[in-house]
Every structure is written in structure tokens, then in C-alpha cells.
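Appendix B. Raw example, untouched.
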Amino acid sequence: MKAPLEKLGLRIEYIQHSGFTVETDKEFLVFDYYQGQVQLPGHKQITVFSSHVHPDHYNPEIFQWQTHYPNIHYILSSDIQGHPQLPPGQENLTFLSPYEEVHKNNLTIRTYGSTDAGVSFLVELGAKERLHLFHAGDLNWWHWRGEPEADILWAEKMFKEEIAKLKEERIDIAFFPVDPRLEQSSCLGAEYFIQEIRPQILVPMHFWDDYGSIGSFVEKMTASPTAILGIKQTNQCFGI
């Protein structure tokens, strides 16, 4: 059974990997679905986001949903535009490159860049008190152990330059990678993001079902002014 909407009237459900749903009284958002169980509501406006074409962030299965839910719109990174399984000639598809803005229904959507592929999303929603959600996609400080020093320095430079572009934005809730494949650098990007942007809540993602790594990150960030959601299983819900 899903948790009830509470406090700000926002419910976040972890689907899998970097996939989440965000639900308000009128809106239902799906971010970076690639597998797992999603319960779509028939009575709300549904907006589906895919940050880039990598198969752990984009699954053409999302287009099957519109058969039963006609009140659906897709906000897709422009690198998905040439995908062979993309349905042709649909008016409910919007493709965005980095640093663009679009207004759909009650949402204001701005895109930022990535340090890998596609875009990251900043979404403003809510009827009364506007909330600002940021989904990073594959934007992260990709510090891979064993890479040449020049590549490591370049990755740091590109990441910090992208975060600097977000400095003037208000971000209430951020979905951000904490990737255990980076080993001791797994939370480097998330910690820097918190330091520079100071979201109220950070939701870890892109952790490849390694829930232990998320528990360690939550424990490490106990003193942080930003609350960290401690994800422990798929389809876990959080009332915000």
C-alpha cells in the first residue's frame, strides 16, 4: 500500500536505479524509468522524463503507457530523438537539449547539462507553494580510480562548471547519483552538490541496488543541513 500524501502534499516513490515517481494532488511525474513497477493514476496529469538514451535511464516501454493513460506527456532528452523505437509523429513528445525551458501543464521545466550524456532536469511544480525538483540524470563527478590524472582533473572541472550554473537556482529536492562503482569517490559529487546548492532534501540514486552504500552515505551525512532519504528497497515511498 502506498504511503499517504502528507506535509507538502508530495510523495516520492523509488522505482529502481535512477527511476522515481513524484506525486502531488494533481500531478504525477516519472523520472528515468528503465524497469520496475509503476502504478500510474488515471485521474492526474502524467509527465514522463528521460534524461538521456542510456538503457538504464530510458526504456521505450514508457510509450506503451499512453494506451491506457491518454493524459500523458513525455519530456525527453534530444539524444533520444533518433531512437529506432520512438513512436513517430506524436504531439505529446517534447525533446530538449541542455539550457532550454518549456512550460507544460502546471510545470516549468528547465534543462541543464550532464557530465556524461543528455540533460539534467529542473522542474517547478505546485499550485500554491511552488516546489523545485532537480533530477541529475548522469550529471556527476565521475572520479574513476585508475584513470589518467588528466582525465580525473577534466572530469572535476566539467562537473564543477556545471554545478556553478545551478548556483542561482532554488532547489528544494535533488535526485543525485551516489554510485558505488566509484568506490571511495562514490559520494564525492553528491557532497559537493550539497555544499554548493544546499537543497532541503537529497535523494540518492544510480546506486545499482547497493542499498548498503546508501546506508553508509546517510550515516556519513548525519550532520548535514540537507536531509538524505535512506532508500532501502524498490517501491519505497516517502511523504514530503
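End of appendix B.
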